[in-house]
Specification:
- The structure holds two protein chains of two kinds.
- Chain A is mainly alpha-helical.
- Chain A is 86% helix and 0% strand.
- The model of chain A has no long low-confidence stretch (mean pLDDT 83).
- Chain B is of the alpha+beta class.
- Chain B has five helices and nine strands.
- Chain B has a seven-stranded mixed β-sheet with strand order 2-1-5-4-3-8-9.
- Chain B starts with 11 loop residues before the first strand and ends in a 21-residue tail after the last helix.
- Classes of the chains: A mainly alpha, B alpha+beta.
- Chains A and B meet through helix 3 and helix 4 of A and loops of B.
């Protein structure tokens, strides 16, 4: 889910930004489209590679932590038991009830370890991640998102018209991704999720534009 | 933490002895020596061997005119259930809720909010004769505590690793 939302949002915004920027600087419609296509390809590959490497790195760190925890648990099993007992107390069980739960889990040492890894050390999630899948999903999501502002440039003649359609499609897509996220989370007012997503994404783009305006005099000075 | 020679702070606190709830007061203990051992919590996976160890050696301590009392910050009802969990204890467990006793003896762990794993031996004049504290993950030696009790009862100078039947130090030696 994370890769889909992140990939689509980045693909939509990055490509819309490239198209908007090029539309202001270049008059040839074909050159604008080709540049945006190249940017999309590069972005999809880059995002996919980044997602793969990030997930893989996280999995490797987690695997190392799990191995260390299991070595410690073999030498000092009571450490794992006490740590899990303390965590269960923090999560609302009485001391005695937590003791009984840990005692029960101790009859299956592997289950005790896995439970402690999840509850005490938070080592569960990344262990089950598939780095290759994350990379592929991210890349495809980016490319799919990039198509949203790109398609108007392929269909609408004239740069001005294409840009207006692209920005409109971008806003609709961002709202749609937020709405989708609200639907997946079973929220009743999914339109709020859409508005929130659109606001944050557009807000980030506006801030980026303003920062560009702020630092543009530095370019004039350097020239 | 209190050290040998310090006066033992008096106490009169609720306690559980096996299934029975009552109170334990230092002033009412007629034993020659008192072993007062603090432990962090009931229903723990580190503490049980110590408590059961002291319980199993109770008759040996009684033969040395020595009472053995445990204390933690848990309440008396928890002690009663913990005693049942450990198969029934004959030694009293003081309910030091509020950590009044642990603080008085200087063994309250502010960070963990429990008593340290500490042992005191209180003599007939109700002064501290022996004190020690262990890391929370290391159980104490009941046999060593009993050895110290036996050495104290001789009133003599006992060399390193002294055991009953072993030679004493010089007769006029003072400690």
């Amino acid at each position: 889910m994370r890769e889909i939302v992140f990939g689509v949002q980045d693909g939509v915004l990055t490509t819309a930004g490239v198209l908007a920027g090029l539309s202001g600087a270049v008059s040839d419609h074909t050159q604008i489209v080709l540049a945006a296509l190249a940017s999309t390809a590069a972005g999809a590959l880059s995002m996919g590679a980044g997602a793969y490497l990030g997930t893989r790195a996280e999995s490797e760190v987690m695997a190392s932590e799990v191995a260390r925890t299991r070595r410690d648990a073999q030498r000092h099993p009571y450490v794992v038991q006490e740590a899990l007992l303390g965590e269960l107390e923090k999560q609302g069980l009485t001391r005695e009830a937590g003791y009984r739960v840990v005692q029960l889990l101790s009859s299956a040492p592997d289950l005790l370890l896995v439970t402690a890894e999840e509850k005490v050390y938070g080592l569960a999630g990344a262990m089950h991640a598939n780095a290759a899948l994350d990379g592929v999903v991210m890349g495809i999501a980016f490319a799919a998102g990039a198509l949203v502002p790109l398609v108007p440039y392929l269909l609408v003649p004239g740069t001005r018209g294409a840009l207006g359609s692209a920005l409109g499609a971008t806003a609709l897509a961002l709202f749609g991704v937020g709405y989708f996220e609200g639907w997946m989370a079973r929220r009743t007012q999914r339109w709020r999720s859409g508005v929130r997503f659109l606001s944050i994404a557009v807000g980030a783009a506006v801030v980026g534009y303003l920062i560009g305006l702020l630092i543009s005099p530095l370019g004039a000075t350097a020239g | 933490m209190l050290k040998p020679g310090d006066s033992a702070p008096p106490f009169d606190l609720p306690a559980a002895t096996g299934d029975r709830l009552g109170r334990v007061a230092l002033s009412k203990l007629g034993d020659e020596l008192i072993v007062l051992f603090f432990y962090p919590r009931d229903f723990s996976f580190i503490c049980p061997t110590e408590v059961t160890g002291f319980n199993q050696a109770l008759n040996l301590f009684r033969a040395e005119q020595t009472a053995v009392i445990g204390a933690s910050v848990d309440d008396a009802e928890s002690h009663r259930r913990w005693s049942r969990e450990l198969g029934g204890l004959e030694l009293p467990l003081i309910a030091d809720q509020g950590a009044v006793l642990a603080n008085a003896y200087g063994v309250f762990d502010e960070k963990e909010r429990v008593a340290m794993r500490a042992t005191f031996i209180i003599d007939q004049e109700r002064k501290i004769a022996f004190s020690e504290a262990c890391p929370i993950n290391i159980g104490r030696s009941v046999a060593e505590t009993l050895r110290i009790v036996r050495a104290l009862r001789t009133g003599r100078m006992c060399p390193a690793d002294w055991t009953p039947g072993g030679a004493f130090g010089p007769a006029d030696g003072k400690f």
